[in-house]
Amino acid sequence: MNCKICGAGDQGEIAAKTTGRDATGITRCHRLECGHAWHVAIPANPTRTPGADVLDAAEPAPCTCGEITTVNALLAEGRRHEALAESLDEDTFRRWLAQVLEALDGIPAESGAPSLVRSAATTAKSATSSMSKKMSNLNKLLERAIKAVS
């Protein structure tokens, strides 16, 4: 699936959630691996050509799903930081990490798993992991947070 916000191609969908339903159709929130999310209104009786994807034809609107908006923004920023790999400076990482820890605080983890904020803190403190490995692991935790609140 292509991200309609950043234009990144072939992005996997982390989660999708129905946010509204009425006689005119349904509205779904789509969250992608790049960290962006959008709402798409799908008409109850779409008029489209056979074989066409309703999502490709629909016009996205910015996601307004409360706390998930913050987590999506952090994931998008995290993806950019991860692309910088070892050239990411420590101050930028620490500022982003503080926001990640604040956003993850209170989001429940899967049953039996350690809290997401605790896992993030442990990942960030790792002295044996490279910056790119830390970023990758923290982005995975943000993806888990998105799934948890979906």
Please give a structural write-up.
This protein has 150 residues and is of the alpha+beta class. It is built from five helices and four strands; from the N terminus they run E-E-E-H-E-H-H-H-H. The chain has helices spanning 54-57, 67-84, 90-104, 116-125, 131-148, and strands spanning 13-22, 25-32, 37-43, 61-62. A hairpin with a 2-residue loop joins strand 1 (13-22) and strand 2. The radius of gyration is 17 Å and the shape is globular. The two termini are 19 Å apart. The relative contact order is 0.15. The mean pLDDT is 81.
Q: Return the average pLDDT rounded to an integer.
A: 81
Order of strands across the biggest sheet?
1-2-3-4
Residues in β-strands, percent: 15-25%
Number of strands: 4
Structural class: alpha+beta
Question: Oligomer, anyone?
Answer: single chain
Uncertain stretches: none
Largest sheet: 4 strands, antiparallel
Tally of alpha and pi helices: 5
The SSE string, one letter per element, is EEEHEHHHH
Give the fraction of residues assigned to helices.
40-55%
Q: How many domain units? A: 2
Distance between the termini: 19 Å
